[in-house]
Amino acid sequence: MDDDDILARIAALVDEEHSLAGDDELPEERRRRRQELETRLDQCWDLLRQRQARREYGEDPDAAAVRPAPEVENYLQ
Hints:
- This protein is mostly helical and 77 residues long.
- It has one domain (3-73).
- 68% of the residues lie in helices and 0% in strands.
- It is elongated, with a radius of gyration of 14 Å.
- The two termini are 25 Å apart.
């Protein structure tokens, strides 16, 4: 997966997330899906940052890997 693939995946996830946004009283299934989308977005952004950092330091960006959701979700912003 290259940067363009990751960015395309991010765009698709954001589009789906936006389709669920704006309803404060989401049914539980939609609420769970939105949380799942947010987690996957965090993982995609993290993967993209890993690839960029590896490239910046002369390392192989393809060696970057998706980190587990609990690890990505606990980063401080």
